[in-house]
Amino acid sequence: MSAIDLSAYLKPGDHVVLGQACGEPSTLVEALIEQGQAIGGLSVFIASSFSGAFTPQTADSFALSSMGAIGALRPMTKAGKLSVIPCHVGQVGPMIAAGIIGCDVAMVQVSPADADGNHSFGLISDHTRAMVDKARVVIAEVNDQVPFTHGEMLRSDEIDVAIPVSRPPVEVAPARIGETDEAIARHCAAYIEDGSVIQTGVGAVPDAILRLLGDRKDLGVHSGMLGDGLVDLFEAGVITNACKAIDRGVSINGALIGTKRLYDFAHRNPAIRMCATSYTHDAAVLARLERLVTINSAIEVDLTGQVNAEQSGSAYLGGTGGQVDFVRAGMRSPGGHALIALSATAKGGAISKIVTGLSGPVTTARSDVDVIVTEFGAAELKGQSLAERARRLVSIAHPDFREELDRAAFEIRRRGF
Fold this sequence. Notes:
By secondary structure, the chain is an alpha/beta fold. It is 27% helix and 20% strand. It has two domains: 13-165, 3-Layer(aba) Sandwich (Glutaconate Coenzyme A-transferase), CATH 3.40.1080.10; 179-414, Glutaconate Coenzyme A-transferase (3-Layer(aba) Sandwich).
């Protein structure tokens, strides 16, 4: 890393914004960790990270912030080495543009340029354009192992410093799917019909759901992220995007989070378009999608339907992300649904995740919630009274906790709510 002298481009006190998720510029991150202390006073923002490069020890080189404890950043919050900015993922780009999140230096990972001098942002598009437009200095890690994906491009003349590398980009292996995940997936899959447009994340439950959709026809995709689980459905002809009112024939996405299999599939694939969050999460865009089924997760849900996807007590475990944008869109979509999926218990069954009161913040308000799903069933809450919501949520809690929860639900009923 001594070949890259960041002090030639960074000033003491600079604010640096990094490409996130699997678009993290690993070579530049390593240089920043090595040289940050000597430059001095650096502040670094990364929305999520899966590389494992950031540890309590490496974070001593700069002040690190993020929109949540997402991926490999969770230990950082526990150690008090990560400042969390609670925000929707779609707000990050506008906050960078407005200078609320400082961006003196943008560090991005891109593909090699095409014949016209355009680099693809490759694996991440969310707020990379906002970073580039705002930064005093744009440092691009040009990685010949990054796929060239369709969507927003970075012109060669927009790059101040190009660092050529050849290394595998960050990968996220598929999660192991257990019996509980499969049970949750079965209840979720029942809401996905032929012609549905799906939004999902990555992980065991989303992958388990996708495995159950092989008999569907003409599914569409409009999502903030795509994982390996979708490749099988593409190759089987299940995902065609043929029924979408907009972007027909194309899957809209903001981040590729998976393995080389996904990256190779996306390389120069015109059926996948990488877009900024100003498009993937925009309310006006989402409002044009019928039969939109959105699938998101939670740490806990209370008996009125309030969802916490961020924090359990003092432990910060997740983030706001794009949940609220997609929950609202799925709930309002004609023929669509917004699913919040979670296991009924945590810590080996010791605690219930259907609770009488949240231990952390409200990520999604009860007024926005549509369907809550556990391995014990689906509770449809939209349009239901508080008392009926409580009754339905108790029915999908783990049996060991239903009696206790039902007593709390009785109080809600007694008050006439």
